[in-house]
Write a structure and sequence with these properties.
Elements (H helix, E strand, L loop, with lengths): L12 H20 L15 E5 L7 H4 L4 E6 L3 E5 L9 E6 L9 E7 L11 E9 L5 E2 L3 E11 L2 E12 L5 E7 L4 E5 L9 E9 L6 E7 L2 E9 L11 E9 L2 E2 L3 E11 L57
Antiparallel strand pairs: 1-17, 2-5, 3-4, 4-17, 5-15, 6-12, 6-17, 7-16, 8-9, 8-15, 9-10, 10-11, 12-13, 13-14
Length: 325
């Protein structure tokens, strides 16, 4: 007779298999879970909807999935530039020629009307890019470099708000916000656009067909324009009615040929802002105290010496080259 107690024997094969399957199911459930949400973005990181850094070496980031396009008028052309870049080795170069005020509009513009996942632009978002102007131009009437439009029908799209460049009394270039729907300028930046370096332009637009739209503009992280309680969209039933573009678009400039670079364009749900300059911590130096050493002069017997004739030697002062500001 066996010494095993009833009910305490070895587990049967069927029970083992059932327990194994249950364990595997529990592990799988724990790893995935029902409709587990995606992990949240890192704290403080902007939620990017779409971006283009031109490091593909072409315009495909703008035109991908038929979510954008390039449109030229007259002499306008946008192309990849591998000599100037804000990041990486490529940027976009926007060029027009012959815009002397007698040849009509000269323009190139590159659009995006969809996010990276193919969705329409949201009700409110941030739009930004880095610009580099090599010199100063004076617009004869208007110079559009950044705009939003509404596609009203398959063969018609109209502007809503435009960031123009205007020439101030001091001759410097500045941004202005032009309300195309109302036909008025809504704000002007007090800050000149820099020449010969990259400048970050960022804007938050709230689309609205009513009088509750808004536009806020930052230049290098400083708010320069704020417009509230305005229409920012035309009525439309088109599925991708909202569009944003970067432009070199004018009816006249002095001088009439103009080319500048743009890089690192972003559409986001949060402000991107310019990257902060690296902080430098001054190094404190403690002066070293020295104890003077007393020396007792040695007595010497003077000897007669005949002074030798010496030829004077000239010494050149060492200077430092001036540093450009």
């Amino acid at each position: 007779m066996s010494g095993r107690r009833p009910g305490r024997g070895l587990i049967g094969p069927a029970v083992c298999l059932a327990l194994l399957l249950a364990a595997l199911a529990a592990v799988a459930y724990g790893l995935s879970g029902p409709d587990e949400p995606a992990p949240p973005p890192e704290p403080g990181a902007p939620r990017i909807l779409w971006s283009a850094d031109t490091e593909t070496g072409d315009l495909s980031q703008w035109t991908a999935d038929e979510g954008g396009g390039v449109y030229n008028t007259g002499s306008g052309v946008v192309q990849v530039d591998d000599e100037v870049a804000h990041s990486g080795v490529h940027s976009l170069r926007f060029s027009i020629t012959g815009a002397d005020g007698t040849t009509g509009n000269q323009a190139t513009r590159i659009f995006r009307w969809a996010t990276a996942d193919g969705s329409p632009l949201p009700d409110e978002a941030y739009y930004s890019a880095w610009y580099r102007f090599p010199r100063v131009w004076r617009p004869l009437e208007f110079w559009n470099i950044f705009q939003w439009k509404t596609t009203i029908s398959p063969d018609r799209s109209d502007p809503t708000f435009i960031l123009d460049v205007f020439s101030g009394p001091d001759g410097a270039m500045r941004l202005s916000a032009y309300d195309w729907i109302a036909g008025v300028t809504r704000g002007e930046s007090p800050d000149p656009l820099p020449v010969g370096r990259w400048v970050h332009i960022e804007a938050r637009l709230r689309w609205s067909e009513a009088e509750d739209g808004a536009l806020t503009v930052w230049q290098d992280g400083r708010q320069v324009i704020d417009v509230q309680g305005v229409r920012t969209a035309h009525a439309s039933t088109e599925p991708f009615a909202r569009a944003w573009s970067l432009d070199n678009y004018t009816n006249g400039l002095e001088p009439p040929d103009a080319a500048f670079n743009v890089d690192d364009a972003v559409i986001s749900l949060d402000r991107v802002g310019p990257a902060p300059e690296p902080e430098t911590t001054p190094t404190e130096t403690t002066p070293t105290e020295t104890t003077p050493t007393e020396t007792t002069p040695a007595e010497t017997t003077p000897a007669e010496t005949t002074p030798a004739e010496t030829t004077p030697t000239g010494t050149a002062s060492t200077g430092t080259a001036p540093v450009s500001p």
